[in-house]
């Protein structure tokens, strides 16, 4: 029997990362958020700072076509070394996500992991959302931001994640039909979301 993989898409300030970590701890799974960048850096030989600078940020439509063409031809060292840096970052993360899924049961946050593992029978894809004002307040409390700063971060981060996801997957970020389970963290609370995710996993 294959590994179980839970992917977490999330709106900024919704608590998706924390919920993912709580699920991983409850199930004894590996957890990958920023950890994925470190692993992709080691696997590819590229500097980790490069991954951090391009993390979940989309580029031009021309780059998208290059990425898809390269990946459809197969991931190999020759093509990898000849491609632009943004494309290398995407391909390296894509490949690392697949490797991790083969190695262990885990929770992966963001980075189009649900798309990368769409054909994996052990996948449960989840999206965490919450009302915008609640998310802003969460960032104000957790990061010590003022209302203006929190509003800007929510807007900017959601836009970046949406653009990145829509761009590389040809799907719509946050659209319910693209996920197995969509949850409102303000309605259910973090613990409630964790329980619902575990229940959904058991029902698969």
| Low-confidence blocks of residues | 60-76
Strand segment count: 5
What fraction, in percent, of the residue positions are helical? 55-70%
Percent of residues in beta strands? 5-15%
CATH class value: Alpha Beta
- The average pLDDT value, as a whole number, equals 86
The main sheet orders its strands as 2-3-1-4-5
Structurally, how many domains make up the residues? 1
Name the descriptors.
single chain; five-stranded parallel sheet; 204 residues; Rossmann fold; 10 helices
Structure description:
This protein is α/β, with parallel strands linked by helices. The chain has a single domain (5-203), classed as Rossmann fold, CATH 3.40.50.300. It is 61% helix and 12% strand. The chain contains 10 helices and 5 strands, in the order βαβαααααβαβααβα. Strands 2-3-1-4-5 form a 5-stranded parallel sheet, sandwiched between helices. α2 packs across α6. The chain is globular, with a radius of gyration of 17 Å. The two termini are 14 Å apart.
């Amino acid at each position: 029997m294959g590994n179980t993989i839970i992917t977490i898409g999330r709106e900024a300030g919704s608590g998706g990362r924390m919920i993912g970590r709580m699920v991983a701890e409850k199930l004894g799974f590996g957890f990958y958020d920023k950890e994925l960048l470190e692993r992709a850096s080691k696997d590819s030989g590229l500097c980790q700072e490069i991954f951090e600078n391009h993390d979940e940020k989309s580029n031009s439509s021309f780059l998208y076509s290059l990425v898809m063409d390269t990946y459809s031809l197969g991931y190999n060292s020759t093509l990898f070394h000849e491609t632009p840096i943004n494309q290398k970052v995407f391909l390296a993360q894509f490949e690392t996500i697949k490797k991790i899924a083969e190695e262990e049961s885990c929770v992966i946050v963001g980075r189009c992991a649900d798309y990368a593992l769409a054909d994996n029978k052990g996948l449960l894809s989840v999206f965490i959302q919450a009302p915008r004002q609640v998310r802003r307040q969460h960032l104000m409390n957790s990061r010590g931001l003022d209302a203006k700063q929190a509003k800007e971060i929510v807007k900017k981060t959601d836009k970046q994640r949406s653009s990145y996801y829509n761009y590389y997957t040809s799907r719509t970020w946050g659209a319910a039909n693209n996920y197995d389970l969509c949850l409102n963290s303000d309605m259910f609370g973090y613990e409630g979301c964790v329980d619902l995710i575990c229940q959904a996993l058991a029902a698969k």
